[in-house]
Design goal:
Blueprint lengths: L2 E5 L9 H11 L5 E5 L5 E2 L3 H7 L6 E6 L4 H12 L6
Antiparallel strand pairs: 1-4, 2-3, 2-4
Subcellular location: Cytoplasm
InterPro entries: HPr, HPr-like, HPr-like_sf, PTS_HPr_His_P_site
Keywords: Cytoplasm, Kinase, Phosphotransferase system, Transferase
Length: 88
């Protein structure tokens, strides 16, 4: 199962607009994408509510993972979003 560790770049963390952007992109992937804070339980990245309850703030490290055909590309796509300041 591919996974990638990424630092949250948005100043507000994965909250509000950044969470909506990430959730929309994750839901559009051909596989289920999960995200977890380091040491925490993974949640479905395609849900804004899940992303907001994750409470991942600016500078926090998160782990993005997926399984199945196209998982590596899905992880890369979501990791790139999380590593970008989406609130800029």
């Amino acid at each position: 199962m591919p996974e990638k560790r990424v630092t949250v770049a948005s100043k507000v963390g994965l909250h509000a607009r950044p969470a909506a952007t990430v959730a929309k992109a994750a839901a559009a992937q051909p596989v289920a994408v999960h995200i977890a804070k380091a040491g925490g339980d993974p949640v479905a990245a395609g849900s804004v509510l899940n992303l907001m309850t994750l409470a991942a703030g600016f500078g926090d490290e998160v782990i993005i993972s997926a399984e199945g055909e196209g998982a590596e590309a899905a992880v890369d796509a979501i990791a790139e979003l999380v590593a970008t300041d989406l609130d800029a």
